Amino acid sequence: MDVAHYCLDGNADAVEFCPHYLFNHVLAAATYTLQEGVEPSRSGSISLFSVDIDRGLELFHCIETAGVFDIKWNRGGVDVHPLLALADADGCLRLHGLQCSSDASGAGGAMLTEIGGEKVSSSMCLCLDWNPLATSISVGLSDGSISLVTLREAQLQISQTWKAHEFEVWATSFDTHQPHLLYTGSDDCRFRCWDLRESPSNLAFQNTKTHKMGVCCIAKSPTDSNTLLTGSYDEFLRVWDVRSTSKPVNENSISLGGGVWRLKHHPHIPGLVLAACMHNGFAIARIGRENIEVVESYGKHESLAYGADWQADRLCTEGGGKRGSLVATCSFYDRLLRIWLPESQMVK
Description:
The chain has 348 residues and is mostly beta strands. Helix content is 0%, strand content 57%.
């Protein structure tokens, strides 16, 4: 069920709901727009929306930035302040705090304030991930490198950088159960894991044969410490058993009909995954013990499907009955942000 839509001011490539309880209604949407010419420039923006099934989308704050490739909120918790990290085309990692403000207009009641930034590389920052304790951030770069950036008292500092892949790194993901392990994926079709307990980091494993095209995204299951997902330009969502750190097993896979750019686990329902499928819209897949099935597809976008996220910790209700979690999706060239409610009974 469509709830609302909004046309952004640039090419939309990432959406992230704030996971912090008091700010679950806040949605961040990022853009990246290439201005061609004699001196090309890459501009971007971060827009904050208040999201509600009855009121729809209300834009309440926007900042202009360099072109943004990826955004991630830190994890919610007791006495943890909401922070939004940005990986941008200027090679910078920037950190913004979400501040309550009586001056902020609209229903949001908050605004972003930049509290730190670090020039990571002369190459572009393409992806990022927070470690579980939000004490460091991994950044994937367009030259194939990975940088680890530590966060202490709102100050960012590069702790190490190493050549992880031959081509662009599109995916970097900490193991939520073993935070000393970092998974990476690249245009070189390689899926790798790094042990961060030494500097430089050691290669714990690599898979060079399974993905037939570049690895776009990696998502460790939040409920099953043995399960990890990868998505690829080759259109396959793959399920991995990572109990053997030195040699993970590809247990299952399914073609989603488009390059699998983004994967998001449902915040409450184990085994339910939201996928952005580039040329084939968005899909919700259920991962069982023996098979994977697509339980719902969403094709209302008419451009590259890039950004996707679930709204955390809030269940929509209608007539006193639970209706499930809201979903935010965005598409690139048509600059469209959509909010919708899955119709599948498995999501309710």
